[in-house]
Design goal:
The chain has 13 helices and 13 strands. By secondary structure, the chain is of the alpha/beta class. The chain has two domains: 171 residues, Rossmann fold (3-Layer(aba) Sandwich); 157 residues, Rossmann fold (3-Layer(aba) Sandwich).
């Protein structure tokens, strides 16, 4: 039995990284002792974390990350997984390197990178290239990112996000589009609203549902009101039953500025939903096979995005893409992904 700690920024939130943290805990917790360290948040978690010994929050600490690292070094864990959306893995590596000079921690430190390398600024790229070398291994979501880190002589593994296979075969239409994610600059909902305002001029019978909340909620709602399209767009806020919307919507739309491997794209495909997405770095092109299960659009080509969305008015196109989506999603079966995670615990890492 291994003693494992998973460090995450906020285990109490509900985005994709928290979902994967819960999945990792479920996977490892079946035969090992798993603890989750959360730098922020408290109270009841959104995800169940059933196989976790305990969740420890460092909210309220003056230096949450330092406190967490000190605790990890004192607890004699076998593995420490750091789930990072950007700088966390760099900061962790730097601090861990500084405080472990006087002693050798037996734990294997694994960074789980959830954002594409290409999406980072030049400075962050340099920091990633430098400080991720101090990890025993780095987990990437896509094969393209793995190739990059391998070129830096960083030990890396590609483990994509899992998706619960639904295999839904569509036989009805709704003319509802769905988008989901944090209402943040990264997700590009401002771009989507601009596209939608142009699209509904000739397609007034379509509706757009946006699931999620975030710091841009009010500004996005104001933008919708200014464009006079309140009757066409519904902000759902934070939803606990996203499966309901996967089931009723015809198409999933994504206009992110950058991604890792978007879990929502994988989940929506399993429900038979074609997707239209900007070809941002990286992720969408790992999931969407152009014209087979959806459409990849060059960044900021709004006209092409609209034309492909209009193409879904044709039933034969919609049903063909829907079948392709269901077929592709079967590649991300959770049991296959669990095997990859568990194999890490027995990997012969270099000392």
């Amino acid at each position: 039995m291994k003693r494992i700690v998973i460090l995450i920024d906020n285990a109490y939130s509900y985005a994709g990284t928290e979902n994967i943290c819960n999945f990792m805990a479920e996977t490892f917790g079946a035969d090992n002792e798993v603890t989750v360290y959360s730098l922020h948040g408290s109270g009841e978690t959104f995800y169940p974390f059933d196989n976790v010994r305990e969740i420890v929050t460092f909210r309220g600490k003056r230096f949450p990350l330092l406190s967490a690292i000190i605790s990890i070094n004192n607890k004699n864990f076998d593995f420490a997984f750091i789930i990072s959306m950007g700088k966390l893995s760099v900061y962790f590596s730097l601090i861990q390197k500084m405080i472990s000079i006087t002693g050798k921690n037996k734990a294997k430190f694994i960074s789980c990178e959830h954002v594409s390398y290409h999406s980072f600024s030049p400075l962050i790229k340099i920091l990633k290239k430098t400080f991720l070398k101090f990890y025993d291994g780095v987990i990437l979501l896509t094969s393209s990112d793995q190739a990059i880190y391998n070129s830096f002589n960083i030990t890396s593994f590609c483990i994509p996000n899992p998706v619960q296979y639904q295999g839904v075969i569509r036989n009805t239409r709704s003319k509802i589009a769905l988008a989901a994610g944090r209402l943040s600059h990264q997700k590009g909902f401002d771009k989507l609203i601009n596209i939608w305002s142009a699209f509904i001029i000739n397609n007034p019978d379509w509706k757009l549902y946006i699931a999620g909340d975030g710091e841009l909620m009010l500004s996005l709602q104001s933008k919708v009101k200014e464009l006079g399209i309140e009757n066409s767009i519904t902000f759902l806020g934070r939803v606990n039953n996203i499966e309901y919307y996967y089931n009723i919507a015809d198409v999933f739309l994504m206009t992110s500025r950058y991604e890792g491997l978007p879990l929502v794209l994988l989940e929506s495909q399993s429900w038979g939903m074609p997707a239209i997405s900007f070809d941002c770095p990286t992720g969408p092109k790992e999931v969407i096979k152009n014209s087979e299960n959806g459409f990849l659009i060059n960044m900021d080509d709004n006209e092409l995005f609209i034309s492909k969305l209009e193409l879904l008015n044709e039933d034969d196109v919609f049903y063909r893409l829907s079948q392709g989506a269901v077929s592709n999603s079967s590649m991300y079966n959770p049991e296959l992904i669990k095997q990859k995670w568990n194999a890490l615990l027995h990997h012969n890492f270099k000392e």
